């Protein structure tokens, strides 16, 4: 047997959904028999709905409520309750991917009403989660690749830590996520089959599987953060050597645990991310300087990111990845343009080279209080900007394109609506994060 045949056989084995199901079983996740599922959903004693707390959902529609169909479900007693959905074989992008005969859990507690994916209408099935520490660990891991994490992590760098590192992290994140999403739509491999896999999360079930963009971001962000900060800031090398593998492992394993990726998807995502970093990282400094200093940088940024968004929308049929890609590109464009304006206004001053490496200041009550105040005030403004832009852009795009906007979910399945909505909304959000909000902080002496 040749080396090529051996590698093909290995890849085939790593793609088997049975291995994903086996990992889930080892971690205490099991599908309930149909009879037990029907009995659990029909139990009259479970009729009182209980309160729910926020928990991770999955990019980018990141940060969905506990029990939402887009997110993983916690053990309520022993059950993650949701209804099975009938389906066939592998489905096209944007429908029900991964042979999703039965999809992930919907309800976190007995008696809660069935939840659905708001964009695709998908529902899930009952599952038994017996190891709650692993459930919460991997729920945290999957959240490290979701919108809720990104929309707090990057602003925290800009407002409280180091804007230079923040800008360059965003550059790398945009490239890695864009290439990952486009590669999915070119390869077009489905999600792991369910059954045997238990889908603990279904929001991204309408996307293709190879490679795992969670694994890509979960590799690129900690590695880049270490490369960008070590030598610029004074801290022990051990911290970085511990952070990088822990972050990458938790995020990657969480995608297998949630039933969203095969082992091969994860390995490919990791290696793909490393390859992108090896090629692209040496040019990050050059691109960042261009974005800040060149007088035509905003025009180049907006045009380039818009063209990339239009190209990605032509690769395949509609799915949640379409909006995610436009959201990522819009955020990257807004942050880059905001950084350009801030630099030319002199709002952010970079430390001189002779002051490097920077010393981490002592943690005091005043320092923490100001950091928390900046985050609370800044995030409140970000949410206001996002909601206002959403209210404006969707009806406007529908009107310009002559698309009925009575059903927002269906309207957003058109490129003419989803691309401008995501691009303009998150472009404005990114611009606010790097320009408008820092200017406000400077005005009220909170910078």
What does this protein structure show overall?
The chain contains 15 helices and three strands. A three-stranded antiparallel beta sheet has the order 1-3-2. The relative contact order is 0.12. The chain has helices at residues 3-14, 17-26, 34-42, 132-143, 147-161, 163-187, 213-229, 237-257, 263-280, 284-293, 297-313, 320-345, 365-401, 408-411, 415-443; strands spanning 29-31, 79-80, 127-129. It has 447 residues and is mainly alpha-helical.
SSE topology:
Blueprint: H1 3-14, H2 17-26, E1 29-31, H3 34-42, E2 79-80, E3 127-129, H4 132-143, H5 147-161, H6 163-187, H7 213-229, H8 237-257, H9 263-280, H10 284-293, H11 297-313, H12 320-345, H13 365-401, H14 408-411, H15 415-443
Antiparallel strand pairs: 1-3, 2-3
Helix pairs in contact: 4-8, 5-6, 5-13, 6-7, 6-9, 6-12, 7-8, 7-9, 10-12, 11-12, 12-15, 13-15
Q: What would a concise description of this structure say?
A:
The chain is an all-alpha fold.
Q: Work out the helicity level.
A: 55-70%
The ordered string of helix (H) and strand (E) elements is HHEHEEHHHHHHHHHHHH
**Strand element count:** 3
Q: Looking across the biggest beta sheet, what order are the strands in?
A: 1-3-2
Cα Rg: 22 Å
Low-confidence stretches: 35-116
C-alpha end-to-end distance: 64 Å
Q: What fraction of the residues are assigned to beta strands by DSSP?
A: under 5%
- Kindly state the mean pLDDT as a whole number? 77
What structural category characterises the helix and strand content? mainly alpha
Helix segment tally: 15
> How is the main sheet built?
3 strands, antiparallel
Shape: globular
């Amino acid at each position: 047997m040749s080396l090529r045949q051996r590698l093909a056989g290995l890849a085939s084995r790593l793609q088997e959904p049975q291995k994903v199901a086996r990992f889930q079983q080892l971690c205490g996740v099991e599908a309930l028999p149909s009879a037990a599922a029907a009995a659990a959903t029909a139990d009259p004693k479970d009729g009182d709905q209980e309160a729910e707390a926020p928990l991770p959902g999955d990019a980018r529609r990141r940060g969905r409520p506990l029990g939402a169909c887009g997110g993983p479900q916690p053990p309520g007693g022993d059950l993650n309750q949701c209804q099975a959905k009938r389906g066939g074989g592998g489905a096209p992008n944007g429908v029900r991917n991964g042979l999703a005969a039965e999809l992930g859990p919907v309800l976190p507690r007995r008696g809660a009403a069935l939840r659905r994916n708001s964009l695709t209408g998908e529902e899930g099935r009952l599952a038994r989660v017996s190891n709650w520490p692993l459930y919460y660990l991997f729920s945290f891991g999957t959240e490290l690749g979701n919108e809720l994490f990104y929309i707090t992590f990057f602003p925290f760098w800009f407002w409280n830590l180091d804007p230079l590192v923040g800008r360059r992290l965003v550059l790398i994140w945009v490239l890695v996520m864009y290439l990952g999403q486009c590669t999915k739509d070119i390869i077009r491999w489905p999600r792991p089959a369910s059954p045997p896999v238990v889908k603990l999360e279904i929001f991204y079930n309408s996307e293709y599987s190879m490679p795992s963009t969670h694994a890509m971001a979960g590799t690129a962000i900690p590695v880049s953060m270490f490369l960008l900060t070590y030598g610029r800031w004074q801290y022990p090398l051990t911290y970085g050597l511990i952070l990088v593998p822990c972050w990458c492992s938790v995020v990657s394993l969480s995608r297998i645990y949630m039933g969203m990726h095969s082992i091969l998807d994860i390995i490919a995502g990791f290696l793909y991310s490393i390859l992108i970093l090896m090629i692209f990282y040496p040019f990050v400094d050059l691109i960042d300087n261009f974005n800040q200093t060149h007088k035509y940088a905003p025009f180049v940024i907006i045009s380039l990111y818009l063209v990339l968004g239009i190209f990605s929308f032509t690769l395949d049929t509609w799915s949640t990845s379409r909006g995610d890609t436009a959201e990522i590109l819009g955020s990257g464009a807004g942050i880059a343009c905001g950084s350009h304006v801030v630099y030319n206004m002199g709002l952010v001053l970079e430390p001189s080279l002779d002051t490097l490496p920077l010393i981490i200041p002592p943690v005091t009550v005043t320092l923490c209080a100001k950091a928390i105040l900046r985050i609370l005030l800044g995030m409140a403004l970000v949410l206001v900007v996002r909601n206002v832009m959403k209210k404006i852009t969707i009806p406007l795009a529908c009107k310009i394109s002559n698309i009925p906007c009575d059903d927002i979910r269906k309207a957003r399945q058109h490129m003419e609506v989803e691309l401008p909505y995501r691009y303009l909304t998150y472009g404005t959000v990114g611009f606010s994060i790097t320009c408008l909000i820092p200017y406000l902080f400077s005005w009220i002496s909170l910078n």
